[in-house]
Amino acid sequence: GAVVSQHPSWVICKSGTSVKIECRSLDFQATTMFWYRQFPKQSLMLMATSNEGSKATYEQGVEKDKFLINHASLTLSTLTVTSAHPEDSSFYICSARSPPGYGYEQYFGPGTRLTVT
Amino acid sequence: AQSVTQLDSHVSVSEGTPVLLRCNYSSSYSPSLFWYVQHPNKGLQLLLKYTSAATLVKGINGFEAEFKKSETSFHLTKPSAHMSDAAEYFCVVSEGTSYDKVIFGPGTSLSVIP
Predict the structure, then answer these.
(1) Minimal Cβ distance to B99: which of A45, A93, A97
(2) Cα distances (angstroms) measured from residue A64 to each of A7, A26, A45, B78, B112
(3) pLDDT at B98 > cutoff 60
(4) For chain A, what percent of residues have pLDDT higher than 70?
(5) Are A111 and B42 a contacting pair at CB < 8 A?
């Protein structure tokens, strides 16, 4: 099946710094990628939809200036957590939607665990 | 609007006994439905999906689910639980096949007792 990677798999940063998480679709081009956040023992919450070459669409309650999303190519989307604080500590998961001829479904990355100290 | 309810937050079964994880959905249009499994500190793995074809869907690792429109349900079953099945399971709904937005259920934690 299709493979989506995330880098890094885990990261620890100090409060006030920024962290960038990469999401790559390895064997297909994804015009649309999605970013989710998962708190411990909770479900995934959609943060934003990332469209290649255009601005991301954020879900209600998600600060777009804090969670910067860039989808500069058909295989890469990045999420930058700016001025991170301990409450931003979470498990961040991305997904990439394959094109119509390749099943047109979401494939999920392995996730990135962010810890802000 | 879409929504997903997983009726049990936690299910515990003995190894070798059947597994039933319940899921009910609400959708304005013809939904696509999925079950994903997440092992501790891992990403999501697709178990199976329903996209308006056969109502009984067979997935990986012996899991299957039946789409029942009249009951708005998509319960996940497995005849015989294995220790490696212990994980978190998410029922997911997407309206139509565009996958523009999917909604995750709250999850069911499955424990398997040896």
Answers:
(1) A97
(2) 21, 26, 15, 42, 41
(3) no
(4) 98
(5) yes
Tell me: the pLDDT tens digits for B37-57? Answer: 998 877 888 899 998 778 899
**CB-nearest partner of B105 from A32, A43, A49:** A43
- Measured from the Cβ of residue B68, the count of other Cβ atoms closer than 10 Å reads 13
- What's A99's DSSP letter? P
Q: Scanning every residue of chain B, which has its alpha carbon at the shortest distance from the alpha carbon of A47?
A: B101
According to the model, what pLDDT value does residue A19 have?
97
Enumerate the residues of chain A whose CB falls inside 8 A of the CB of residue B107: 42-43
Chain B residues inside the 8 Å CB shell of A46: 101-103
Residue type for position A25: S
Distances from the Cα of A65 to the Cα of A15, A58, A82, A84, angstroms: 17, 10, 8, 12
